[in-house]
Amino acid sequence: MRVAIVSDIHSNLSALRAVLDHAGSIDAVWCLGDIVGYGPQPNECIALLRVYQGWAVAGNHDLAATGGMGVEEFNDAAAEAARWTAEQLIEESAVYLRALPPVVIEGDFTMVHGSLRWPQWEYLLSTEQAQAQFELQSTPYSLVGHSHLPFVSREQPSVPPVLVPASDGERIDLTSDRLIINPGSVGQPRDSDPRAGYALYDSSAATVTHHRVEYDIASTQEAMRIAKLPSWLIDRLSYGR
Ligand code: ZN
Fold this sequence. Notes:
This protein is of the alpha/beta class. It has a single domain, classed as Purple Acid Phosphatase, chain A, domain 2 (4-Layer Sandwich). It is built from 8 helices and 12 strands. The chain has helices at residues 13-23, 42-50, 60-64, 76-88, 91-98, 127-136, 217-226, 231-239, and strands at 2-6, 28-31, 54-56, 103-106, 109-112, 141-143, 151-154, 163-165, 171-173, 179-182, 196-202, 207-213. β7 and β8 form a beta hairpin. α7 (217-226) runs antiparallel to α8 (231-239). The chain is globular, with a radius of gyration of 17 Å. The model has no long low-confidence stretch (mean pLDDT 97). It binds zinc ion.
């Protein structure tokens, strides 16, 4: 089985298309949340995702766009984009987002947007947070998003788990070590590499491989300008920040 692991698509259709094209023949898509927010094509991204078999969990932006949580914790640009997204969502999209669960367990994998402690809110960025995640994790591997930073963390006896950034083409062999994996962000990368990020799980090879894929950034930025989304959100796509 080949599965595209995607997260933080953020209504960026061009980036999502590029990632799915790159993944080629796949049996499923697993999405770690924040399908919408920031970007210009929320309904289109939801529709494309739903073409595939798979799972998706709720991100904070998915909840904010559908009234599931307030936008008080968001910065001004994110709050403005969340209000814009809420106005754009067709009923079918809103129903889909509202039904997303906070956590999904599929075989050896647990999927959550932020962390198992705080599914929609915690940015898993430190050794202490990785330790807390491993304590709550009942499967060998967990998949997280939210920080938009691709990494892998390995649980090892008597050594605290570190977060190792993952670059394009980096392959993780799935062994008996427990892991936390972040595939990075499809639609708004933040590790200074503007290319769309995702990971590909190959069950027969027992590997997960991080990938970065070029996409038409200018077309997404143009759609954002037409939608009058905040310029800071438009500019950052060029830099992957
Ligand atoms: Zn996000």
